[in-house]
Amino acid sequence: MNRRDQFMHVPRKSGTERASSERIGDFEEYKERFSEAEASTQASRCMDCGTPFCHVGETYGQVKIGCPVYNLIPEWNLLVEQGNFQEALVRLQQTNNFPEFTGRVCPAPCEGSCTLSINEPAVSIKHIERTIIDIGFEKGWVQPRIPTVRSQYRIAIVGSGPAGLAAADQLNQAGHQVTVFEREDQIGGLLTYGIPAMKLSKDVVARRVRLLETEGILFKTGVTIGLDVSLDQLKADYEAVILCVGATEPRKLLDVPTSGVGYAMDYLTSVTRQLLTGQPVQDQHEMKGKDVLVIGGGDTGADCVATALRQGCRSVVQFGKHEMPGTVRATDNMWPDTPNLYTLDYGYEEALAQFGRDPREYLIAIERYTTSETGQLTGVWTVHNEKIRHPDGRIEFQAIPGTEKYFPVDTMLIAIGFSGVEQDVLRHLAVETHNGKIKTTSYATNQEGVFAAGDARRGQSLIVWAIREGREVAEAVEHHLRALQQTG
Ligand SMILES: Cc1cc2nc3c(=O)[nH]c(=O)nc-3n(C[C@H](O)[C@H](O)[C@H](O)COP(=O)(O)OP(=O)(O)OC[C@H]3O[C@@H](n4cnc5c(N)ncnc54)[C@H](O)[C@@H]3O)c2cc1C
Ligand code: SF4
């Protein structure tokens, strides 16, 4: 009989991490899955609270609750606790097409909504999820599911990120003929060229792509829709087209030096391309012996810090505009909302071990750049700000006198977010947009038979949301196909 008070006796554990000093020497994954025994012990911390918020997956105003794909978390926790990993895998695959991705890199909003997390560390949901699927692959329980009956409908999916892959998986399993078009040389979208290999091994992505291929999905790489093949051509050749083209138009920083400045995405992509193909990175993406500055306090910036460390940078700092988050929830960020708390992400932990300090600088602004005679960036003068909240809700940043500081910089990477779908992609596809994203009604665009999902529709987000959108757009396409069938 399971005791539902195990959380009172068993402390939370996450997966074992390789030592910082060791892991910055390579691009291998930095974390290992639980052993079966560890996973069972950790799953026993789930108190089966009766009204679980962890799997709700909804947004109420600004408050985001639980797992966006509605993973059946308490159910698989119980099965894992009982040592029944095979049945846990069956439950997991009912809701999540790619748990090996989310189990590694999801920020786990489920854990922020775990009832236990009101006053105790949450259940290690994400890492249990990873352990279930990794064991599933290791033991050969994940096998190709090849549809036995095929419909006459052909579906074209543009973009092979998690949204495109999830939609492809759903529609292929429903028996339709699915082709995925990708402009890059590799399938995976940001799973491949974006998220660094030490967080998500490219072998893990390739393993899933091979499985989808065996199940009947056709992948065409090196094809840019809008350039090599027009959208009109796709509409003529396929009964439905789904645009999952992502949202990687970078926010720009104006008036920067002409040399020594680059965009985070270009940098991360070229380093991963080097790992996959051996193609050397350009000088501007080689950080060995350099002083590196990352602008932007988010996760993309954190990935740049970790990547620069692996290349052997001399120093690395990351500038953020906002204040340092607290270690306890603020009153406007209470459970079950996703917590905004100070954490030492993997790259920061590594920088701390390497250079003795957390690389993040908060509430900081660049006053001016210093450059060489050739226009090459050599450093930045900065000032720390005070964040002032006015009674009418306005927020203002005011420089604090006497806080001026100089940082030597060889390379500055801009990681201040994304404004929407890439401008070039939108120009060539010519679908209606809103605020830089593709405008849809129930996932349908303004063009007959053309749908959109993922970051291209909702803006830069998370893998788990892309998977949910992929699943939902597949349902919308099913409705469309049924309507086609009825009209003859
Ligand atoms: C650096 C970085 C790190 C991140 N880390 C995390 C993380 O740790 N955890 C997490 O949950 N989320 C993370 N994210 C966010 C997450 O990766 C995205 O939300 C997710 O990948 C979106 O999926 P998508 O399928 O909508 O688009 P994408 O993954 O962006 O895929 C879009 C694909 O469309 C292709 N494409 C575009 N136009 C065309 C065209 N005209 N013809 C053919 N192909 C085209 C692109 O080449 C690309 O492969 C990160 C994002 C970045 C940038
Ligand atoms: S997909 Fe993300 S939110 Fe859902 S259970 Fe896994 S870690 Fe939690």
UniProtKB/TrEMBL annotation:
Pathway: Amino-acid biosynthesis. Residues 24-140 form the Dihydroprymidine dehydrogenase domain. Keywords: Amino-acid biosynthesis, Glutamate biosynthesis, Oxidoreductase. Residues 1-21 are annotated as: Disordered. It holds the Pfam family Fer4_20. Residues 153-470 form the FAD/NAD(P)-binding domain. This is Glutamate synthase. It comes from Exiguobacterium undae.
